[in-house]
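for the record, two folds in this file. i put them one after another cuz i was lazy. first one right below, seq on top, structure tokens after. the second one comes after a little note so u can tell where it starts
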Amino acid sequence: MEKHQINQENRFDFQKSIVIPKNIIAKQYNENSIISNLFVTDIGYYRKALNHYIKRNNGADQHIFIYCVEGMGTVEFENTEYHIEAGNFIIIPKRAPHRYQADSSLPWTIYWFHFLGNGADQLVATLQNYKAYAGFNEEWNLLFDTIFNRLERGFSRENIIYANLCFHHYLAEIFYTDKLPNHTKIEPDKVEEVIDFMRNNIEKMLSLKEMALAVYLSPSYLSAIFKKKTGTSPIDYFNQLKIQKTTQYLLFTNLRINEIAQKIGINDPYYFSRLFTSVMGISPKQYRDNRFN
């Protein structure tokens, strides 16, 4: 068995994996023409895999598939380093020396497979890019669970065939869905999550990085999906929420304007007034004076 280096101080929120015994592969897989062309040898899921690091100087005996659904990481092989973010998948060809690791600030959550077969070799050989963006679809996660749960019940002929035919379906969904008409990808509602985070921290001056950390995405990816859904940046949206809260204070309390500014995390009254005016079109004082008009 080829030796590889692995960080022994892994701290994952949750992890699960199954390694198919070699004697099962020889008996159930290689002798079964239904699945012998492309089959799973290992399967796993790591959630928020802090300190996840693996280096294989001689590569693995199987192709490796990694699909990232949260956080970030890096994968390096064939003299190229790939930056992996949520929605990306990557294939590492068998026997290619490689290393991969989770980001230290936003460690990735990944689904992964090792797989083999002549069909697997052909599939990997035809890839235009080892790394690609797949997006998100909850059905893919359910399909992964189906494969995992079936193998977890043991390695009977029926379980092996069923799990691997589902694996074929899984790869087809990941690789080819975006090439078909009328395909849909279900985006996790991270935008609504970060809006809730903003509302619960309205008294703070949050940075984009802090918002991204709260929903386990990279700042650049959060900005992209946030603007796509709302039409504005996370910071501008947060400022709008602050001003919305300010209007309530102005209408329904007798707090002084500088006290209201502090309640929404702004210590500079001049900046607060400029921000309010840029959003509402009038100053905080004018807004309060006009509240009963």
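(here's the note) second protein begins now
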Amino acid sequence: MAQPLTLCLTTEASEAQAEALAQALVERGLAACVALTPVRSLYRWRGALERSQEVQLLIKTNPSRLAELEVAVQQLHSYDTPEWIHWPAAASAAYGAWVAEGCS
């Protein structure tokens, strides 16, 4: 039977900052797992086109921890306006139970 979980997406400016953020979220029990992937981003910031190398964080959490997770990301993130996208997902029973256990 499928188990609910929430996926969240943000980016950090460097591998070190992404690793530090991911570790803090997992240590606090706000995320069961954070996958880090290097990405190249193009975006408009303060009227100018920007290009940067970033690290994308895909955060897996229990839906009940989403609000606390968002507060922590906003507090710990290196950006003034961090990317924050989240959506509901479903996982296998075993993986969903593991996520729930990791977010307690």
